[in-house]
Amino acid sequence: MATCWLIDGDKVATTAHSIILFADHLEALKIRFPCSGEERGVSKALFHPRFSRSSTTQMATQAMTDYIPQVSLQKNNAVVLITRPTLPDLSIDTIAKLIQKNSVPQASLEQGMGGSLSELDLAMVIQTITNARKEGILVITDERNRTIARIFCQDGKILHAQYGGLLNEYALYQIFESKLDGNFHFRSAKSPDWLSSRPIQRPADMLLIESHRRYDELPKMQQEIGGAQTLWLRLSPELNTSKLTGDSLERAKLLWPVLDGTTPANELWRLAGLDDYSVFQTLAELRQTPQIAEQAPNRSPYNRTAAPIPVAVQIQLKPYDEIESLTVEPSDGRPSTRRGSLLGSLREADPNHLVHNLVLSPESSGCPMFKDGHVIGMHCGSLPPEPDTSDGTRLQQMLWVDVILQCLAQGGEATLARKLSQSAIDLPKPAPGTPTVKAGCSEVARVNCSKCGASHLESSRFCKTCGQKLISDIEYKPRKAAFVNSTLIMVLLMLGIGAGAVMVLARAPQPNILPPEYVMKPEIPWVTLEGKYNDPRRGKENVFQRYKPGVTLRNGTNFYMKVNVDEPSYIYVFHQSSSGGDIDTLFPPSQEDMAKEEAANAAAKAAKGGKSDAGAKDLKLAAKSAPAPSDSKQKHAEEYSLSAGDYFTCPSNLETSFANIQVKQQQNVLHDCYALGDPSGAETFIAVSSHTPFAIYGDQEATNAFFANALKFLKQHEPSNGIEIEADLLKPGLLSVEKRSSSTSALQDRPRSKVFLTRLAVLHK
User: Fold this and answer.
1) Of 183, 245, 498, 505, whose CB neighbour count within 10 A is largest?
2) Domains in the chain, start-ordered, CATH in brackets?
3) Which helix (H) or strand (E) holds 254?
């Protein structure tokens, strides 16, 4: 169920939530030390005095039917178990009570939809639901009817799925790859009852075909890399992103942190947020590049005795301290370590609850965390990410080791608590006149904010700079049933108050959302914008820094923007100056614009003798520049589709890589930069990725109207990476109907009615 560690001769520490359903029957618990083979029973539990047993019991009970990632994140989630050398025999009555408490009553079947997956094919069950256009949730349970996976269907579509820590497509694929053979039932529902960021877009039949393909090819992929149990180790600390593109790069970013040679390949999906097939596919790609190597199993001897582990409560902790976890591999009982960093405290003025970045399995909850060889904390579990804003970072929570001592002190073991609090290491004494170093960690965790780039965690879940939500709610909030007093409503209507109520409702603020079929926030953006700037007054004319949104630059600063293409598509880049006026189309330019730009560049270089700042342009003028086709007979630049992995810059091809367009690199970096100038304000760039060419290209009035609507939706939804939206919501007739049929083969299977929007606002004064 969880991991525990020996703190004294007969006492172990672990997380309280893992044993809460056995709190009244501790004799049913068994502690096993795999290294030595020793087994012990439990006689007493010392919970933390401020741990809420009642709410955690309620939450753990509900977690048998619902996915509740907060189950391991309750405040002061610690317990010390006093062990005994023998395991008692359990009575039949006790066994019956435990089975009942840890089981769920069998769900009533709606319209006969239920059965066993050992007898019925899962794909056939899903097809039956989608073909009948049923609306609700297909629930897959284990032998005790506890929910292990869920699939939400509506109008013949599979819109959401959840399995373990996976969501949507990856969850559905893993359900098939895991060969789940439990029971299932279908219940009516209007929406999924778990947190999910976006609906699945692929048709149900395509999803099922892809799921079967992955299931069939998985054994072959496992064999190609040496087997399902192989261990893989990264060859460098950082992933070389230049060798991967598109989906391969995004998968590699998720898998890279857990490739430390300790976890078997077939267990990586639980840590990386990918399905098994994607894991082995990515391993093969990383081995081919090559960036990883197979790690031989550790056969060196190790200590097999169960000995207490020393704690060090006096050690000062601070953000970015290097820490380690100690767990036991379930396959062979060998100890396993993983290294990472402490990020700080979860809440201000709360040293007991800390955040770290070591990605660990759910069974590792309760394992000790080390700094410099001494225990400084205990791992609890993963913090639930905020689906709409998360950048993929998987934050983890741990408890400061002082929480364990508080369990002992309040449980009648004050002497042992004082003994353990005496540090096992020599701490340096402060110099005369200097303040004493405070133990533990008092600094709040620093987490990259996907909105403003700042890195502060405030009030548990929000960015201190801009208020952006970084992680989902940690506290447990039980469901509340809706209550409607129909009699009272009728009386109010009869008294004429209804008219006033209608007026109040009419004036109430409307929610800033649209139905999910119109606006979505995809996990992987189609295109990204990256600003780079150089202040010539600093004397380093060719040294550029990455622009962080929210930072205000000085007028006169040189600036250019890099556009990275992550999805095969047509790319359009627009600009709104701080001075207002018409919207500028930066990319793609017309042939006339390119000819003018080339002539202007040549004249500027000739006039200034090739000096580095000769071509810097006032951003208000929005001079356009782009790679010109190598053959003058080729089609206009606006009709080119770009490939995943392509990139270019505005205003010019300072950094350019196109698969289908030859370009001539500029020799002088600063020559083609923008120069930020008056009036002070914000230069707003919007990039659009579309699978169909624009119909409004060159129409200034239509471009202005489109830009205004696009900016409204981007501000309304505050996306971290951009939004996917129906094109007609931005401007009726935005896309060219005539050119849809002539799109390149790379775009034939892409959705044609949607576009992707992202923006970058550059502040200056």
Assistant:
1) 183
2) 5-101 (2.40.10), 114-215 (no CATH), 225-295 (1.10.10), 519-764 (no CATH)
3) helix 246-255
